[in-house]
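Quick one:
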Amino acid sequence: MAAVAGCELCAAGASAAWAEVAADARLRVVRVLDAPEFPAFYRVIWRDHVAELSDLSDDDLAHCLGVVVSVERVLRDELAPTKINLAALGNMVPHLHWHVIARFDWDSHFPQPIWGARQREPSPPAGVRLRQPLNKLDELIRHSVATMTRGLGSIGG
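Output:
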């Protein structure tokens, strides 16, 4: 399916809201930049403009969920978060994408969702509290996705 005009997730190229970490013919993995209180916040964005997970073929479904799990595993292994939040709401942007967010008991909103009420002011700030720097996380996610999808398409970052 072709891109849909006005859909921010269909738009190719750089965005002030995210940095592309990995990509193949079917999807992109990006790190969200416009949520500094949640630095380990990634999105898996399906390239075709489809609204629902059930719009995918069985093969595409397995690929999409495999990449979501791949990103989750890196975050769990490298950051030891209190919880990983997975969300595929799409109410505001009806383009299939998954949020994969490492959450910590010290983060500003925990245990509320990131869109919920602030619970505290973390000190030091969230970005400096992570066990791994973001560029290393990006590289590990890129490698994990590439390894998982080897032979299924071109991976780049």
